[in-house]
Amino acid sequence: MAETSNAQHVLKSQANWDALYFYQKSDVIYQLAFAFCDRFIHLYKDRTRDQVIQAARSCKQNIVEGLADGVASTEMQLKLLNVARASLKELREDFEDYIKSRHLQFFISGEPRYADMLNYCRYHNRLSDYEPFFAQWTDEQMCNYAITLCHFIDRMMMSFLKKLEQEFITEGGIKERMHRARTGYRQQQDQRLKQLEAELPRLKQSLAEAQAEATKWKAAFENLKQRALKMYYGKEEEIKRLKEQLGEEM
Predict the structure, then answer these.
(1) Of 108, 98, 121, 111, which is closest to residue 49 (Cα–Cα)?
(2) What is the pLDDT of residues 155-188, one digit of tens each?
(3) 185 versus 88: which is more confidently predicted?
(4) Residue 169: which H helix or E strand, with range?
(5) Angle 80-83-87 from CA coordinates, rounded to 5°
(6) pTM, to two decimals
(7) Which residue, among 55, 52, 58, 60, has the nearest Cα to 25 in the 3D structure?
(8) Dist. CA 127–CA 71, nearest whole Å
C-alpha cells in the first residue's frame, strides 16, 4: 500500500476540464468566433478570419493540453495555460478592433444591454446557452458578448493559475515529487530492513529453544516407545506361555 501511495503522488490526478467554467466558456468563444466569421468576415478578402478562428481554437486547445500535461508536469501546465491566455487576449483584441474599425458601439456600464449581457455571460457557461443566438445577434452584439466572455475566461484562468502556482510552491514539480516518492520508498525499505535485523536474534533464540524442546520430546518419545515395546513383547510372551501350558494340560 505504501508503494502504491508513493507512485500515485508522483502523478497528479487528471483534471476534468469539461467541468471547469473557463473551459466551458472557451468552447463557447470558439464556436461564437467561428459563427461570427462565417457571417461577417469574408472567406477570402480578410485574413482576420483565420486569425480570429485560430486564436479562439488555440485558447481552447491549450487549456485541454495544459490540463492533460498537468498530470505529470505542473510547469508545462502553467506554460500552456498561459499560452491559452495569450491567445485569448489576441482574440479579444481582434473583436475590439472590429468594433473600432466599423464604428460600432461598445456596450458600457450603466446601459441596460450591458447589465443584461454581463449577467448572462456570468451565469451561463455551456454552448447550448449561446448557440441559438449565433444566427440572431448582430455583429455588434456578437463582438460585445465575445469580449465579455474573454474577460470572464481570463479572470477565471488567472484564479486557476494562482492556485497552481501555490501548489507548485508547496509541492514542487514532477522531479521533486519523484524524488520524494523514491526517498520515501527507500526509507520504508531501510526501516523494514532494520526491523528484520532487530527481530533476527530473537527469532534465532526462539529457534534454538524450539530445537532444544524438540530434542527433549524426541528423547521422551523414544523412552516411551521402548517401554511400550517392552510391555508389548512381555505380554506377548506371557500369552504364548499360557497357551503352551493350556495345551499340555489338555
Answers:
(1) 98
(2) 999 999 998 888 777 776 556 655 565 666 676 7
(3) 88
(4) helix 139-171
(5) 140
(6) 0.67
(7) 60
(8) 27
